[in-house]
What does this fold into?
Amino acid sequence: MPDDLLEIYHRLLTHFGPRHWWPAKTPFEVVIGAILTQAVAWRNVEKAIAALEKAGLLTPEALYRCPTEQLAAMIHATLYYREKTKKIKAFLAYLFQNHTGDLEQMFRLPPDRLRRELLNIYGIGEETADSILLYAGGFPFFVVDSYTKRILFRLGLLPEKASYRMVQDYFQARLPKDSQLYNEYHAQLDALGQYVCKTRPLCSECPLLDLCAYARENKENQQKQD
DNA sequence: GGCCAGGACACCA
DNA sequence: TGGTGTCATGGC
It folds into this structure.
């Protein structure tokens, strides 16, 4: 059945292999990467992360002290760098005002409360908050991105304009509450997303091609019955 | 030269 | 609540 999310997961894992996400050395790097990757492919973020690391700025203390203009210049390669500078500074202000700049202290908050607090920070929406919670904090929040939505729509499992919460609930209601599983599943969907582009309905290399076809036929049969 | 990429926010109806 | 404009680089 195409709605067996564990079957889909194991097929993707077999096809792509373990993805070892998130590509970061520290939880703080995850946070910065999660903000920088907004609306941009990861390859565009790598340059900025490398520049920050080279400058010794990948710690909360160093980045908190870093002048805004310098930070903006270092993340120039990522789209909307001025906005992202404001977002990073907003997160750092929250971290130092509420947790003395200590990420470990921040992650000792109850996860649901921390999620609400993150969402109150300028520039942190649901996807960014959940990426931080899952990949930096190890909490079981399923991360939904545009690939995830597109894939579920193509499989015929959810409407095209399903809300973030709808997609997240769909996964979390059908999967064990396991942060390692959520971690790898999202990484697998990212890999699959490259085969499920916006303009073409399906690519022949898609490892879920038969499920997509099944979903379409099923929908057509239902329409005939109606 | 044009299009698009792993979001989020402000504003408006 | 949902739709739309804005942000504003780099790769293809």
Summary: The two ends of chain A are 21 Å apart (CA to CA). Residues 39-41, 43-44, 47, 76-84, 161 of chain A lie near DNA strand C (CB under 10 Å from a C1'). Residues 5-17+143-225 of chain A form a domain with the Endonuclease Iii, domain 2 fold (CATH 1.10.1670). The mean pLDDT of chain A is 89.
